[in-house]
Amino acid sequence: MSIELSAEVAAAVADGTPVVALESTLLAHGLPAGRNHEVGVRLEETVRAAGAVPATIAVLDGTARVGLSADELARVCGSDMLKLSLRDLGPAFAMRRDGATTVASTAALAHRAGICMFATGGLGGVHLAMPGEQAWDISADLDVLAATPVTVVCSGVKSVLDIAATVEVLETRSVPVLGYRTDHFPAFYRRESAFGVPWRVDTPEEAAAVIAAHGETGSSGVLLVNPVPTEFEMDTDLHHRLLTDGMALLRERGVRGKDVTPVLLEHFHTASGGVSLTANIELVAANTRVAAEVAVAQSRR
Question: Which 3 state secondary structure label does DSSP give 64?
């Protein structure tokens, strides 16, 4: 595998300094130009403020870069980047392409680099089926998390996904789900879904202890779910209207499979007047802070 760690990240991994991996698909494909670079810088500063080292991950010129320079971060945010899941890394390496890493590929590369903590916005999951159909589109994030000993801090899965099926897949794959100061599985823009979490932790130290104990008994990653901050949660009525209208839009356009989520998210961003975009940014920032605090607590054990 073609992978290079920045000097800062390599030194931190070698001496046990806490490191937090950050994905690049959020920046290249999830946020508008201009705002994406601002958010990328903010997330790295958030990690540093908590006492850890940020490691934003992307593929540049066919090499996985773990920890980006200022110029490389700007390149990710300003260039036309491929979206690379785990299955896409080999072709991108061989063809020397540029690409932004998803949750699945970021987790795999972080593990390869010796990093066990990863912050993101939302985990991929089982896609909603259109009426009269069965959903077969399941995000690679779930299987990678089941096979990769990395802790992913996120705000659950997006409400445009099938949350019930996603929670069931996580249970089947034996992935521990920890609610961070919550008893409910979050739904990205909303703090609570209809589903609970099997375990709750209330401090970084408690989370670190559970993660360490799981490492002695299981080989999967851990999902630490952190709800969107209360002040940025989307209004219930607005969320319901956007989701209902979005599903009608899918039927009207005949959208299927992997195209469902991007179309729904774009609908949320445009029809909410920026409310969903602000929620997205703030929940990622909150997850990054929690991940860094837990990483620091792990380093002190």
Answer: strand
Q: What is the mean pLDDT of residues 87-112?
A: 97
Give 256-279 pLDDT, tens digit per residue: 665 676 777 788 888 999 999 999
Phi, psi of 222 (to 5 degrees): -125, 140
Task: State the chain's maximal CA–CA distance in angstroms.
Answer: 55
- Distance in angstroms (rounded) separating the CA atoms of residues 153 and 117: 8
Tokens representing 137 are 């589109």
**Is residue 23 annotated as a catalytic residue, yes or no?**
yes
CA 277 – CA 275 distance, rounded (Å): 5
Which position among 23, 44, 233, 293 bears the catalytic label?
23
Structure token pair of residue 174: 């034996």
Q: Flag whether pLDDT at 130 surpasses 70.
A: no
Distances (CA, A) of 110 to 13, 74, 149: 11, 21, 10
CB 223 within 8 A of CB 118: no
pTM for the predicted model, two decimal places: 0.94
- Distance, in Å, from the CA atom of 96 to the CA atom of 101, rounded to the nearest integer, reads 15
Is there a catalytic annotation at residue 158?
Answer: yes
What is the Cα–Cα distance from 126 to 91, expressed in whole angstroms? 25
Q: What is the DSSP string of 12-59?
A: HHHHT--EEEE-SHIIIIIS-TTHHHHHHHHHHHHHHHTT-EEEEEEE
CB of 159 closer than 8 Å to CB of 204:
no
Query: Hey, what are 274's tokens?
Result: 């920026």
The rounded distance, in Å, linking the Cα atoms of 89 and 218 is 26
List, as one string, the DSSP characters of 128-189. Answer: PPPTT-----B-HHHHHHHHS--EEEE-BB-TTB-HHHHHHHHHHTT--EEEES-SB--BTT
Characterize 268-278 residue by residue with b for buried, 16 or more Cβ atoms within 10 angstroms of its Cβ, and e for exposed: bbeebeebbbe
Catalytic residue among 8, 72, 133, 158: 158
